[in-house]
Write a structure and sequence with these properties.
The protein is of the alpha/beta class. It has helices at residues 42-50, 72-76, 78-81, 98-108, 116-127, 143-156, 175-184, 196-199, 221-245, and strands at 5-9, 23-27, 31-36, 62-65, 83-87, 162-166, 188-192, 204-209, 212-218. The longest helix is centred in the last third of the chain and has 25 residues, at 221-245. The chain binds adenosine-5'-triphosphate. Keywords: ATP-binding, Nucleotide-binding, Transport.
Length: 260
């Protein structure tokens, strides 16, 4: 089944009051942000979506797929749910090479595409400053390399049309490019973030307060420009980090940022 949109039907906040946002639909290819203070209920919202809640969680929210209540099979069986989650704490544990893992994953998902391993590694290497090679063991990958590989893997192999991302701001990858990559593969992307680069590249963001969805903010064209400029600063910081990592020295000349 093609998943074209998900709808969140509002429930109750922590005080048991109805949420201000009664209904929210996110479509394929859209990047949607979730913002809010600590403890405001961001993770809870993402977890309602992950579980395809049907009024059976704390918030009493309901999640619809393509406007309909998802089947019991889809709700009970995580393999049928087709929702991928990414967070900055995830790491690979399997003792196998990058190539072995990707081939195994592609096979298990029925992806039989020539050159799929190279495609994923190339995409991943666009997101990290430290290139990944096919014969690297998964367990030696750095945090940034692991996350880059996960993002590229979700984009190309995993057929999960819904991707939930919990704070990847410190994941050590080019986050802007990572989100664009996922959205470009026609995913519904929901991202919890306080990072202006990410929050402002979404199309819309929901503001969480006291466990409830209180407001939906549409990103303006000006905000998107702010995001792009902040992204230049971010990538510049990333390149400085790479220099340090490779034992190089920095000078004041390195601080010249092309016109912001
Ligand atoms: N609608 C709700 N009804 C009842 N309890 C809720 C609701 N939303 C969130 N909670 C509870 O409030 C607590 C904080 O929520 P949550 O962890 O989702 O916040 P958060 O915004 O992700 O916080 P952080 O930024 O610290 O990760 C949790 O114990 C959660 O179960």
């Amino acid at each position: 089944m093609d998943i074209n949109e998900i709808t969140i039907i509002g429930g109750y906040n922590k005080n048991g009051e109805l949420e201000a946002v009664k209904e929210l639909t996110v479509k394929k290819g859209e990047i949607f942000g979730v913002v809010g203070a600590t403890g405001s209920g961001k993770s809870n919202l993402i977890s309602d979506i992950e579980q395809l809640a049907q009024g059976d969680t704390l918030s009493k929210r309901k999640i619809l797929i393509n406007g309909e209540v998802p089947s019991v099979g889809m709700r009970r069986d995580p393999r049928k749910r087709r929702i991928a989650q990414l967070s900055q704490n995830m790491n690979f544990l399997a003792d196998m090479t990058v190539e072995e893992f990707l081939l195994m994953h592609a096979k298990s998902r029925g992806v039989d595409k020539e050159g799929v391993v190279d495609e994923i590694i190339n995409l991943a290497n666009n997101l990290t400053g430290e290139p990944i090679k096919k014969d690297y063991n998964l367990t030696i990958l750095s945090g940034g390399q692991s996350r880059s590989l996960m993002v590229a893997d979700v984009a190309v192999i995993s057929d999960s049309p819904i991707v939930l991302i919990d704070e990847i701001e410190n994941a050590g990858i080019k986050k802007h490019e990572a989100l664009e990559l996922l959205a470009g593969y026609g995913k519904i992307v929901m991202v919890i973030t306080h990072d202006p680069v990410l929050a402002l590249m979404t199309d819309r963001r929901v503001v969480m307060k006291n466990g409830g969805m209180t407001e939906i903010i549409e990103t303006t064209e000006e905000e998107k420009k702010v995001s792009a400029k902040l992204n230049n600063i971010d990538n510049w910081m990333l390149s400085m980090r790479e220099k340090i990592r490779h034992g190089e020295r920095l000078s004041l000349n390195d601080i010249v940022i092309e016109e912001l």
